[in-house]
Amino acid sequence: MLRSAILAASRSPQMRTLVEKLPPTRAIVERFVAGEPLDAALAACDELTATGRRATLDHLGEDTRDAAQAAATAAAYEKLLEALKETGLAQHAEVSVKLSAVGQFLPQDGEQVALENARRICTAAADAGTTVTLDMEDHTTTDSTLGIARQLRADFPWLGVVLQAYLRRTEADCRDFSGPGSRVRLCKGAYQEPASVAFQKKDEVDRAYVRCLKVLMAGEGYPMVASHDPRMVKIAGELAERNGRKADSFEYQMLYGIRPEEQLRLARSGATMRVYLPYGQEWYGYFMRRLAERPANLAFFLRAMATR
Ligand code: FAD
């Protein structure tokens, strides 16, 4: 119930205005978001890579209905990738992109605009010597996002996609995307989805996650295990071993600010560990999904409000 309410609020412009105005919000947001300017993101990225972790940077934004805004987001990614190249961080850092931030929902030719903007970003990534992963949004976008990914992969075979274990379709998608060279980030899924398309109970989602992991680990691609769940991390390690995978043939991924000690432990153990690093002004939707995920995150937020 609470999760549904917070996820509904994550898409409400009125709630957004209210939450953004709350005095303690900024300090709490900083727990999950690197900051607003590019420099803050580069500094956080530098800190992660200095401790043996990799990064995937997300220039925050989603759901744009404005073509100029979509183009500006693509330009921001080009600038980010140029900076990663110049600083040498591109060796350890890639970018994550939401297609809805680069035009997918535009009323006219949205998919085409998103494809072209994503192509600009992929071209800049290739020039910087790094890669791009397309984030996955709610289930109404899955076919469109995977379709755009397939088109881009013809020119950028290293393009990563995200699959969400809570969707009933995902085990089959894992099979489709487990071929040679395929990079797949497997997460549980962060949106409010109906029972017709998604498992609703936590144990059902967890079991689906393990089934998908089995497919990806046995496949010929590069699985990216995106979870903070200690059980999933353990099972991923066991499956990697059972399938004879070396540390450079799969990776673990966690979100910035979540379980940093575990991130460091995995990196020190020799595993490849990548941190999803969001930055920029458009933090509202991302932040609300983090609150919805975990009562402790929400409690932290409410406590901070109460002490002001
Ligand atoms: P949960 O089921 O939320 O938690 C399981 C257990 O993990 C908890 O019981 C606890 O032991 C531990 N845990 C979880 N959170 C914390 C915490 N804050 N502190 C301490 N322990 C914790 N979702 C999408 O829909 N699309 C995407 O493109 C996408 N990209 C992602 C990229 C990355 C790198 C990651 C890590 C997640 C991404 N997600 C994405 C979010 C994802 O779908 C989940 O909503 C989110 O990761 C929570 O699921 P979980 O697997 O961590 O486990």
Automatic annotation (TrEMBL):
FAD binds at M136, Q164, K188, G189, A190, K202, S227, H228. It catalyses: L-proline + a quinone = (S)-1-pyrroline-5-carboxylate + a quinol + H(+). GO terms for biological process: L-proline catabolic process to L-glutamate. This is proline dehydrogenase. InterPro entries: FAD-linked_oxidoreductase-like, PRODH_bac_arc, Proline_DH_dom, Proline_oxidase. Its EC number is 1.5.5.2. Pathway: Amino-acid degradation; L-proline degradation into L-glutamate; L-glutamate from L-proline: step 1/2. It comes from Peterkaempfera bronchialis. One of its GO terms (molecular function) is proline dehydrogenase activity. PANTHER family: PROLINE DEHYDROGENASE 1, MITOCHONDRIAL, PROLINE OXIDASE. Binds 1 FAD per subunit. Substrate binds at K98, R289, R290. Keywords: FAD, Flavoprotein, Nucleotide-binding, Oxidoreductase, Proline metabolism. Residues 42-300 form the Proline dehydrogenase domain. The keyword Flavoprotein applies. Its cofactor is FAD.
